[in-house]
Amino acid sequence: MQAQTGAGEGPAYTLLPGSTPLLVSVPHCGRELPEALQGRLVPRALGVEDTDWYLERLYAFVVERGAGLLLPRYSRYLIDLNRPPDDTPMYAGQNNTGLCPRTFFTGEPLYRPGCEPDAAEQAQRVERHWRPYHAALESELQRLRQLHGHAVLLDAHSIRSELPWLFEGTLPHLNLGTAGGSSCAPSLREAVWAACAGGAYGCVIDERFKGGYITRRHGQPQQGVHAVQLEMCWRAYMDEAAVAWSDASAAQVRPLLERLVDTLAQWRPA
């Protein structure tokens, strides 16, 4: 296990290195908020409702199967690790939350009036929290590439099934993203689709969620690094209404996730 410490604020992430070509990144499962930030947020924000809930628990099995696992400590309300450091919108022309989010996924403000971070504070958060996570991600992917000849990244996310401020209607259970096919080899995209589609869970690929910054930045198949994002609806593994873990739902979806993880870990470039 490796942990990175930033500016006296405790570990920025936990990295559990694996022995297969696969690394699983879970950039939005962190729930902590620095004490100095808490008083600037509206009370509702302290519940960190836009967390990718319980994914560190759901994906814990990947370590037993030889994959690496990278987990952040802090909430996306501090900094969003799946956004570019220059804060370019991920989905142009649509509602987005930014690098240092100022709104909930429902569109209401996160901060008390006048308490939003300025450009200098945003840059400081990038240095203290964003860069360490991405340095660890890059370093581990390169280690795997050198060891195996290639590396595979699964960027794991989850979200509420309906969020009208962000998208219309109800999302399918499983939303795969490969940046329109550019973040991984075509054969891996096909294998991932075969592992996830056609069963009890609705599945799409490269639709509303095509892959965020991590998938787009680190998925460089021409350099031997292949990336896939999975945005999974909470209802696939949780009691979504209660925002609570569900043993029954998690047990039901786990065989599919195991099949996906094994597919990613066992795939080899042609």
Descriptive overview:
This protein is of the alpha/beta class and 270 residues long. The protein has a single domain, classed as Zn-dependent exopeptidases (Aminopeptidase). Helix content is 29%, strand content 18%. The protein is built from 7 helices and 10 strands. Strands 1-2-4-3-5-8-6-7 form an 8-stranded mixed β-sheet, with helices on both faces. It has a two-stranded antiparallel sheet with strand order 9-10. It is globular. The model is unreliable at 4-8 (pLDDT under 50).
Topology:
Elements: E1 2-5, E2 11-16, E3 22-25, H1 35-38, H2 55-58, H3 61-64, E4 68-72, H4 119-148, E5 151-159, E6 174-177, H5 186-196, E7 203-205, H6 213-218, E8 225-233, E9 238-239, E10 244-245, H7 247-266
Can you describe this structure in just a few lines?
With 270 residues, the chain is of the alpha/beta class.
